[in-house]
């Protein structure tokens, strides 16, 4: 996608006014003593803890100061877009890696290929390939992975053993068998797995595990009627039809950990943040009976999503080199190990995992294995919206309103409608 | 006169015109990058909205909320005002404050509390229903019950406001009228019908117009409680507009939604004032 081109000059005057105003407010970026001041935006928990790392960075790089601004996740995407419109982007920022195609299409980000090639600290080969790939748009690199987030199985070993299985599922067939067996276990009314209907991830993961891509022809059309996706959708809906999964959203299940502890379900697909939550919230006597496992795939070991955040430099920054230095520093394995200790976020580099508390963590082992098998979502700016439609249609189908084929056709129709403008722009570019 | 008109022009007509202009384009994230990615689409946004099932669903949800919620809200306000106003009521000040309290509390805070009350398995409401032998209702998770739950919540949250207005109106009804009607031998219900309600008519018109306009703009309750779900049964027109504009940056399309809602509320309000005028003319 090369919609970048020259930035428009429209309403230049207004943008300058906004920029001037922001400058005045942010007490411009040259401090009194003449040292550089880097504006760094980070979100949520990361924004809280990163200041500790930037302090050490300042100590080893006299002449550069880092001002961290924390954004709440809730409004982060909106704020970054607004900053771009108002010419008030920071020098660098943390960015959810699914947003990168969008901001790259806007021309808001600096390409980092040459900087990476010349850097002794950022070694591409050391990164989990699927995670690295999320930052590459049209063959150019726009971000460096900072931490990774993928989803896999959290399960109850005791319930699985009760149903007669000694190990977690290795393929869909085996998984299906287990789900049915757990549903049949005696006791109070219960299910086998929780697939919250307000999340698109569970179905998305099953779709990512297929041969066929989710969008076709360079992200011009939906590809949900492909054989692979329909198989994924069929498996997903089967879990609701057979009452293996409750038709419920996360908001209805006020306390997932309580319900998991009560045996209301034995499998839950979720991310690394829940390792800490499970340790904290599950009762002591259950601590030995829960475990994590990589996702099973249709034929064997399965793929999962390549989520997480990257560090990006903005094209408008006048301090590109200093910003890159900070990215290099935050990419050092020893710094990433400290970052993990502070935040619990999983590092994106293999060498950061070694010799850290992570390498001995029983529950993290499945994540380490899964990270070698992760797949980015389609890299089009419209993806987030298509994923939302995926959730909406899946919810309708799970409630019994649509067959597999009807849901797949509906998804393609919606995706094609959302991608209409992208097709128009690509066509116009091809014609130029 | 002129300054007032100028203010109205700048702060009302100008934004409306700007929204109208914006709604005729496909302004989106691509148009942010380069203005030549902006296409004039004329009535395209409107046509597409009228073909979007979710827009109709949102409109239906909003109408359901208005048609069920407004009369209920006004009935509850009026009933509680009459109760508080009656001569036999004790502790008026305390009750007035208690019933008005939800109006001034933060919506988000009380929504969280209601979320607990409405919980399927541990919620107080279902426990009480259980005592009465009624099966638990999945209030916020069942598409058939989510909107009624939101209506209950919204009515509880703001009936106190109209109640206070009714109370003020009740207190301004001259006592002589009641005395005269008692001498004529009117019973309590007759007093209500022939003295109280006619005297309240202008207030009733005001309150129902305001409540109607407010209820059409349902947004915060589903935003906090259900995020428009389950199965989009609580997606209101305004919630739909918010997602279209601020989540997806389709500002052209979102402006078209705003404009359609504006026209709808305008039409309903005009119809309402027409009916009331006919009704109040002898």
Automatic annotation (TrEMBL), chain A:
Q: Give yes or no: UniProt keyword DNA damage.
A: no
**Chief localization:** periplasm
List cellular component terms (GO). Answer: periplasmic space
The cellular location(s) given in this protein's UniProt record come to: Periplasm
Q: What is this protein called?
A: Sugar ABC transporter, periplasmic sugar-binding protein USSDB1B
Going by the UniProt record, its keywords in alphabetical order are:
Signal, Transport
Q: Which family does it belong to?
A: Belongs to the bacterial solute-binding protein 1 family.
Q: Which InterPro entries match?
A: Bact_solute-bd_prot1, SBP
Look up the signal peptide feature and give its range: 1-34
Report if keyword Transport is assigned.
Answer: yes
Origin species, per record, is: Hyalangium minutum
Instruction: Name the SUPFAM superfamilies for this protein.
Output: Periplasmic binding protein-like II
């Amino acid at each position: 996608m090369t919609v970048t081109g020259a930035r428009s000059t429209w309403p230049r005057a207004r943008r300058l006014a906004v920029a001037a105003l922001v400058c005045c407010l942010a007490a411009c970026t040259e401090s009194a003593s003449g040292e550089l001041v880097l504006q760094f935006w980070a979100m949520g928990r990361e924004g809280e803890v990163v200041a500790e790392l930037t302090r050490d960075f300042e100590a080893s790089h006299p002449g550069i100061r880092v001002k961290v601004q924390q954004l709440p996740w809730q409004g982060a995407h909106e704020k970054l877009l607004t900053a771009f419109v108002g010419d008030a982007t920071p020098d660098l920022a943390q960015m959810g890696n699914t947003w990168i195609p969008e901001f790259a299409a806007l021309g808001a980000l600096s390409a980092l290929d040459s900087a990476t090639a010349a850097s002794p600290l950022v070694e591409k080969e050391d990164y989990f390939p699927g995670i690295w790939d999320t930052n590459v748009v049209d063959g150019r690199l726009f971000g460096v992975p900072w931490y990774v987030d993928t989803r896999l199985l959290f399960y109850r070993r005791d319930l699985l053993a009760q149903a007669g299985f000694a190990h977690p599922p290795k393929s869909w067939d085996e998984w299906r068998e287990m789900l049915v067996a757990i549903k049949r276990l005696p006791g109070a009314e219960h299910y086998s797995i929780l697939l919250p209907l307000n999340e698109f991830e569970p179905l998305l993961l099953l779709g990512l595990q297929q041969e066929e891509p989710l969008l076709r022809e360079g992200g011009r059309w939906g590809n949900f009627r492909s054989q692979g996706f329909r198989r994924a959708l069929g498996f997903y809906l089967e879990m609701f039809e057979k009452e293996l999964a409750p038709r419920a959203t996360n908001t209805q299940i006020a306390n997932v950990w309580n319900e998991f502890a009560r045996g209301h379900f034995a499998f839950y697909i979720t991310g690394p943040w829940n390792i800490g939550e499970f340790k904290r919230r599950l009762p002591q006597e259950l601590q030995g009976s829960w475990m994590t496992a990589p996702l099973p795939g249709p034929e064997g070991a399965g793929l999962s999503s390549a989520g997480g955040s990257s560090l990006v430099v903005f094209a408008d920054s006048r301090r590109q080199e200093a910003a890159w230095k900070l990215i290099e520093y935050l990419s050092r394995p020893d710094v990433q190990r400290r970052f993990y200790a502070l935040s619990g976020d999983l590092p994106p580099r293999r060498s950061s995992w070694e010799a850290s508390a992570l390498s001995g963590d029983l529950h993290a082992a499945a994540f380490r294995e899964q990270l070698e098998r992760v797949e980015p979502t389609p890299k089009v700016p419209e993806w987030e919206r298509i994923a939302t439609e995926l959730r909406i249609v899946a919810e309708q189908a799970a409630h019994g309103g649509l067959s597999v084929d009807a849901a797949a056709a509906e998804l393609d129709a919606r995706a094609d409608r959302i991608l209409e403008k992208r097709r128009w722009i690509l066509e116009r570019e091809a014609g130029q | 006169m002129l300054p007032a008109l100028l203010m109205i022009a700048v702060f009302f007509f100008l934004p409306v015109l700007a929204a109208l202009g914006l709604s005729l384009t496909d302004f989106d994230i691509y148009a942010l990058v380069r203005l030549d990615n902006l296409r004039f689409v004329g009535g395209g946004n409107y046509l597409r909205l009228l073909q979007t099932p979710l827009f109709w669903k949102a409109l239906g949800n909003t109408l359901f909320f208005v048609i069920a919620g407004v009369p209920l809200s006004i009935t509850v306000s009026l009933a509680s005002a009459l109760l508080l106003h009656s001569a036999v009521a004790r502790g008026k000040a305390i009750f007035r404050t208690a019933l008005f309290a939800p109006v001034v509390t933060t919506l988000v805070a009380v929504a969280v509390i209601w979320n607990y009350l409405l919980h399927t398995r541990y919620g107080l409401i279902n426990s009480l229903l259980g005592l009465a032998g009624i099966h638990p209702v999945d209030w916020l998770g069942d598409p058939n019950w989510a909107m009624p739950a939101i209506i209950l919540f919204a009515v509880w949250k703001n009936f106190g406001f109209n109640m206070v207005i009714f109370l003020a109106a009740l207190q301004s009804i001259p006592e002589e009228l009641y005395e005269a009607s008692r001498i004529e031998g009117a019973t309590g219900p007759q007093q209500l019908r022939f003295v109280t309600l006619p005297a309240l008519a202008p207030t009733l018109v005001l309150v129902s117009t305001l409540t109607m306009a407010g209820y059409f703009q349902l947004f915060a309750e589903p935003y906090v409680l259900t995020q428009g779900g389950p199965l989009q049964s609580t997606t209101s027109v305004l919630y739909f507009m918010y997602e279209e504009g601020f989540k997806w940056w389709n500002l052209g399309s979102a402006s078209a939604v705003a404009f359609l809602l504006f026209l709808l509320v305008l039409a309903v309000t005009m119809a309402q004032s027409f009916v009331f005028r006919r009704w109040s003319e002898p």
